[in-house]
Write a structure and sequence with these properties.
The complex is a heterodimer. Chain A is mainly alpha-helical. Chain A is 72% helix and 0% strand. Chain A folds into 2 domains: 406 residues, Amino acid/polyamine transporter I; 74 residues, no CATH class. Chain A contains 19 helices and no strands. In chain A, α6 crosses α14. The longest helix of chain A has 46 residues. By secondary structure, chain B is an all-alpha fold. Chain B has one domain. Helix content of chain B is 79%, strand content 0%. Chain B is built from 3 helices and no strands. Chain B is elongated and about 50 Å long. The chains are: A mainly alpha, B mainly alpha. At the A-B interface, α17, α18 and α19 of A face α1, α2 and α3 of B.
């Protein structure tokens, strides 16, 4: 039995398949069309390279998960290595990344179903998320063995697809590597497809259920990474051989389209069916991870205590689940699968950088620590992992970078809300509102006096100055309401009141 | 709940609404979907898109936070 009371019943093979299954999100097979439009047929090499890049960080996962065999993986490691804001930020990114990943997986499933039956994609994805959140609130035990069985079936089906596709492609013209958008397109595709290999770290998360974890975890992680590199590279190669890129990028489910060409309608339905089933497991894992991370952050007093409430009957962190559900539904309703993919990548690229940083810090801070597995070529491997993460960030979609930046701002806000006190934060936010209001009023004045021309060709009926004045009025009022003290309980520092922490 | 609390909550709600609208506008400006061409509607030139997205995103973010704080403080904390 492990420290968490779970029975250690996953052997080497099951753990390896568990790692492979963790990455098999339906979203991965939906985004191939957009990736191909960025990189052309060079996508084959990029998929291979993405696997190698993620493997650099997997080595850090191997070392840390065996050296610190405790629940919480990345968050726990950074807490041991750094503590404070850094560990909070790691947990925060784990949480947001899982929100985006759940959303991507659910959207991927909806897109795959939509290839066969017309449906509303965002609403279908939201329904999947609602169902799995309810299942999680009711409390589910890890079904690792069932998941590995499904993974095995998916792998066999994909192998059949590759074999059939290869035979089919022999009748077609030869395959030539090209990159229509040059090196920039290749980097952009790498940044876009980075999430393809995410999920193999599920082995580290399931460490409490793995037999002989010190020996099995590193081997299973490395083997699952190798299997995934071979699997994804061959699937992408065959897909690009049988379907021209111009056709591929128009498909809601590129893999289903290619499978229909190669194996017929029944084959396409079979492949999509098993990917959807495997994808449901990915949605479930991501939803479970969201609530557990939020629960841990709340338990460690980084976030309000209400988030670590446990349901009396189901013994699950139901408040954390419902709180995460709001954000997951909001992201899913966008329905923009490519944008959500970039958001997933933003979160995980930073998360991977934190894991590598934790490894470097722990090697310096606690050199005596027992390490059953040591990442080779230290510090080259973790430093390479960090450098590549930073480079990939530069090639992410600008909008995703801004949303990611705002997520960091939210994290800072949440952290300082606990650390510097609620009333000081109210003062700061009130000041910002007041400033925004005054500036908006100034813009309204300039618009009204024609010092600056605000032309809204499509909105002739509504003068922009009126909109700006209304916004300015609300902003100024809200700013004042945040700045003025309301009651002695919530007194500002100037009143000598105690900070009323939320 | 007194009149002051109700009015303050209304201001908070309106500010959250402004924030959410700003973020939706930022998203629409950036993606300029074919069913609702916001850039044409606003006469926005291509080079200002990223800037507008950033400004609207940041203003939206702070407006939502400020609105939440106003509601929390005037509608709930005072009651407690």
């Amino acid at each position: 039995m492990s420290e968490s009371g779970l029975k250690r019943e996953l052997g080497f093979l099951t753990a390896t398949l568990f790692g492979v299954g963790g990455t098999l999100s339906a979203g991965n097979f939906v985004i191939l069309g957009h990736a191909a439009s960025l990189a052309g047929t060079s996508l084959v090499i990029i998929v291979f390279l993405c696997g190698i890049i993620s493997m650099l960080t997997m080595l850090s996962y191997c070392e840390l998960s065996t050296a610190i065999p405790k629940a919480g993986s990345e968050y726990t490691w950074s807490k041991v290595a750094f503590g404070g804001f850094f560990s909070f930020l790691t947990g925060w990114f784990q949480w947001t990344s899982n929100i985006f990943y759940a959303s991507l997986s659910a959207l991927g499933i909806a897109y795959m179903i939509s290839y066969f039956f017309p449906l509303n994609i965002p609403l279908t994805a939201v329904s999947i998320i609602l169902i799995f959140t309810l299942i999680n609130i009711r409390g589910v035990k890890s079904a690792a063995i069932a998941e590995t069985f499904v993974t095995l079936i998916v792998m066999v089906m994909l192998a059949l697809y590759v074999a059939d596709g290869w035979t089919y492609s022999l009748k077609l013209q030869g395959f030539e590597l090209n990159a229509p958008n040059g090196l920039w397109g290749c980097f952009a595709a790498t940044a876009f497809l980075f999430e393809l290999y995410l999920g193999a770290e599920a082995i580290a998360v399931a460490q409490a259920e793995i037999k002989d974890p010190e020996r099995v975890i590193p081997r299973a992680m490395i083997l699952s990474s190798l299997i995934l590199i071979v699997l994804y590279t061959s699937v992408v190669y065959v897909t690009l051989r049988v379907v021209p890129i111009e056709v591929l990028k128009e498909q809601t489910s590129p893999i289903a389209f290619a499978a229909e060409l190669v194996m017929g309608k029944a084959g396409a339905m079979l492949i999509s069916g098993v990917i959807i089933i495997a994808g449901l497991a990915a949605v479930n894992s991501a939803i479970m991870a969201q609530s557990r991370i939020l629960y841990a952050l709340s338990r460690d007093r980084y976030l309000p205590g209400v988030l670590s409430a446990i349901h009396g009957r189901f013994h699950s962190p139901h408040v954390a689940s419902l709180f995460s559900l709001i954000f997951t539904v909001a992201v899913t309703l966008l329905g923009a699968v490519n944008f959500v993919t970039y958001l997933v990548n933003f979160g995980f690229v930073i998360g991977f950088a934190f894991v590598n940083l934790s490894l470097i810090k722990l090697r310096k801070k606690k050199p005596w620590m027992r390490r059953p597995f040591k990442s080779p070529l230290f510090p080259v491997v973790p430093l390479a992992g960090i450098s590549i993460s930073i480079i990939l960030l530069l090639f992410l979609d600008k909008a995703a970078l801004i949303v990611g930046g705002e997520s960091i701002m939210f994290a800072l806000l949440a952290y300082y809300l606990r650390m510097v006190g609620y009333s000081r934060l109210r003062l700061a936010v009130g000041g910002i509102s007041l400033g925004t209001g005054v500036f908006t009023a100034f813009l309204a004045f300039m618009a009204e006096t024609r010092l600056v021309m605000f032309d809204l060709p499509g909105l002739k009926a509504i003068p922009p100055a009126y909109i700006l004045i209304s916004v300015a009025f609300i902003q100024v009022l809200a700013g004042i309401l945040n700045i003025v003290p309301t009651s002695p309980k919530s007194g500002h520092p100037k009143n000598g009141g105690e900070d009323n922490k939320v | 709940m007194g009149v002051k609390s109700v009015l303050a909550s209304l201001v908070g709600l309106l500010q959250i609404l402004i924030g959410v609208s700003a973020i939706i506008a930022a998203y629409l400006i950036y993606y300029n979907p074919s069913y609702f061409e916001v850039r044409t509607l606003l006469g926005l030139r291509g080079e200002y898109v990223a800037f507008s997205f950033l400004i609207l995103g940041v203003v939206g973010f702070f407006s939502i936070i400020s609105g939440i704080l106003v509601i929390h403080e005037w509608a709930f904390a005072r009651e407690g």
